[in-house]
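Example record for the data management plan.
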Amino acid sequence: MLSPREAVRTLPSYHPPLAGRDGLRLDFNENTVGCSPRVLERLRQLGPEQLARYPEREPVEAAVADILGIAAAELLLTNGVDEAIHLLCETYLEPGDEALIVVPTYSMYRIYILAAGTQVITVPADKKFVFPDDDLCNRITRRTRLIAIANPNNPTGTVAPAEDLRRIARLAPDAAVLVDEAYFEFYGKSMLETRSEFSNMFVARTFSKAYGLAGLRIGMLVGDADQMRAVRRVSSPYNVNAVALACLPEALGDQAYIQQYVSEVRESRARLERALGASGIQFWPSQANFVLARVGAASSFVELMRRRGILVRDRSSDHGCEGCVRITLGPRAHADRLLTALQETLEEFGMAQGAPQR
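Corresponding structural encoding:
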């Protein structure tokens, strides 16, 4: 009888709660207003002939690489960052290898690593979710073949200092070191230039968050040209669809739109953190477009916010996140709605201590 591989049969399932998302969607770290108008105009221009052809990825890769100031051979466009993670696992991992992740973090690292038959070594962050540099470095062995680090991290919003990331790359020359910069725009600091110092460091980015293209599924992976040639061998030549490829140059070309959105999100983030602090709610200062907060009965909190038209994400099952919810930020108008609903919900919880912080 046909049977899946053992690694697949024992793989944990990931089922994002996407159904019934009616309300202001502050639960999946998406852009809450949508993409640039230039992207919408490009979509309207697409005709049947363009959709009937296989997509050509390379010209768009060359244009993106030029914007970033790197060689096209160092960049691969991917079907979201998820595919970038998957490709690194397919390229470098074998059964018997080890991969390191810091927890809590993005769930798909673990799933793709386990699917390759590789052992996952988890390194817990401390109670303040400070990046555990020394602990991680102490777990590097000759079997370590992948180290995946989200920077900023999801769901905590905390960051790993650049020097820590350099140290890890130096100590693990035989491992692929992935720096996942999905929330780069909200942080403003990158390892993209530093990456060129290390042939084993890769940087991934997505256009799902700040750029508002989550539905088009497009991201990128950047690394040493020789290493990227190996990664391309396991990638489909048609992995990114024609619609995403047509729209990406327009999204990148409208940096004024992105800068305005990011600026408002950062302002909203500060407002939320002030409101949480005023109510005595524990939270962790974030460098992303979300804030993690400990509210106690997380599932009840999520439901009460939903009744007020605001969707937030229960993260209490993540390591060290008991009783926590993650709240995505958007522009000022969305922050106004969020803070009003938050105040009402905290009052219902008996946790409010002051008026919403504007």
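Summary line stored alongside the record: The CA atoms of residues 75 and 222 lie 5 Å apart.
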